[in-house]
Amino acid sequence: MIELEGVTKKYGSFVAIDNITLKVERGELFGFLGPNGAGKTTTIKMIAGLLQPTAGKIRVAGYDLQTHPEEAKRRLGLIPDRPFLYEKLTADEFLAFIGGLWELPERVVAERTGMLLELFELLDWRSELIESFSHGMRQKLILAGALLHEPEVIVVDEPMVGLDPKSIRLVKDIFRKLCAEGKTVFMSTHTLSIAEETCTRVAIIQDGRIRAVGTLEELRRLSKTSRTHLESIFLELTAGEKMKKIDLWNSAGSRDQKHLNRYFPGG
Ligand code: ATP
Fold this sequence. Notes:
This protein is of the alpha/beta class. 42% of the residues lie in helices and 22% in strands.
């Protein structure tokens, strides 16, 4: 459903994404994890066709984004990390606007709007201006908008940020249901417990490279220790020079600190 083949993205001479190859199958709820600045948003923007890779191929629902961008994008719903909403529209008007962009018949838009607003528990606010919505309500409206054209692939950048526990549960259940229906969800998240609970497979990205990919069970086996929680595995797999430095620092006596300073200036 989503295929990345040797994908690289450079910003000037800086390599943000370094030769990533990844395949996400239909029906998967796939977690994309990594520390700040690892390259999650850049990857998501490339999958959504908002950024061009410097090299490599991306296919969405079997369509090459470069050669068949419209076919690929029509099958994809994007929920960005910083979504934009027209504050002066009501929830109903916003979804009608999105439906218009996808050229959906009005009757279909009206039907799906009712269904989605009910699903996201926004029905009572359908005629209110978005400017009066809380962060969580806005987030849910964005999700509803991304599902309006019934995409086969849903790509979500940090979907749970700012949601209360009840809404998190709701969104998790909706994602699970979508995957059970044969859709594919690709979700970046910092919330490891959510990935642990919901994702069928996860990939861990760091410095633009995939460090590990697999089921939680497979990652546990990959991890050198007998750690069981995704958080420990994540921290172990992404522990770079800084972590090593802290370990060295902790084990070094004060007389060695001057010596360490030479190797790790600024510490
Ligand atoms: P976070 O979890 O903090 O949101 P991320 O994993 O989504 O981070 P990206 O936003 O993809 O990371 O950024 C990856 C790297 O690319 C970072 O080093 C970032 O500074 C750099 N980067 C992102 N966008 C640009 C840009 N437009 N120009 C230059 N560098 C960029």
